Amino acid sequence: MKNIRDLHVEKEILPLFDFVGNEFSRDALIGLLSELPGTLGEILERQQVLQCLLSNEKLLSLGGVGVSGASFARGPLYSKSEFHEVYRTVEELSNRDAPVPGRLYLSLFSAKRNQEIGRLNQLTLFFYKLYHAYYVPLNPAAFPEAFALRLTRSIRFLSDLEIEKNQAIVRGKGFNLTAVVPLMGLLEEKIREGEMDRFWEDFFLLDAYLSIARGIRQHGFTFPVFGETGLAIRDFYHPLVKNPVKNSLTMREEVVLLTGPNMSGKSTCLKAVGLCVFLGHLGVAVPAEQCELSFFDVISIAIDLADDLQSGYSHFMSEVKTLKDVVLEASRPRRCFAIFDELFRGTNVEDALAISKTTILGLTKFTGSCFIISTHLHQLKDVVTDERIGTYYIECSLEQGRPVFTYRLRRGWSDLKIGQVIFDQEGLNGLLE
Description:
Structural class: alpha/beta
């Protein structure tokens, strides 16, 4: 189970890593950033793929402009129009009702001869560039077995197309009828056997991984280490915040309560922690100086819950349903990581206090899971005496009657209330008296 809607993958996370050159690679990238691997072994394999790519300076120095407009390195390896022309050439070959011998085809349709040869020239040079830019710098043996097989398959595919010999022909006088016929035959055979589709699939995946590696390098993210239990993140931050304050969190308890006045940065802090855990479980580096965490079967980030009008759920019912889903998973038992921002703010204070106590104490029994709950209920302070419950707060102080926010995460509990202060600052006491 995963509940990551509130992390806004396509809107907020994808742009951090989006340096792909075509929309098909972008689809593969979205898949890598959305689909959690099922085991720790799969996570570590993804880490290994990315670390191998990051160690290859020649590959990382490739230039380009991502489909979202992000630019990187030198100049573009290929343009979007060039890719689409080559891809369309392959599609048209694929969609022919039946393969036609190249010499016969070009003889029967002499008006198309120059156009066809020109497009095959372009295809040859495109594959030649891909081969030398993406595949020559890589050693498949350094990668996990499954990914190494993809690389080896792609290299063999390009080798079978005799791109070295054919690119020399193109750069010389270009293809003539005699030279182009064998290439058309090879292409039609690769398409018929499904090898062309597999090549594109493998290339798009490699392009997506390389795009993530570029994002990691550009933002200076760090790969997490997986341990047995708990969570420890040093100098983490949310990468979309300009000049962010970096914080540290060590969580050995099952439950951590987070307090602090409104506008102090609790939600942003929770999103940053959730982002580190989520990216870590994708096999991707995280926005932190150092991160150690355990493997969680379930990740649930509930920060921006709202009324679900379509399903008829109120905000409170959405909170209850989200909590129930997590508790059912933890009872299986499965290791859960869950964040609840201002839990039960959708009901009255008396009910919220009673069910919050039940929830907090009940969650402590799920050993190996981690639950972070931010709360505005100061009366909950009397339940934190349980050693299975930790407390953090976002630092804020009043100076000359005005709130000063530092956005620093500290151990302990905050009883500071600034609602009345801000109410008075805005002159509402005077307006309403």
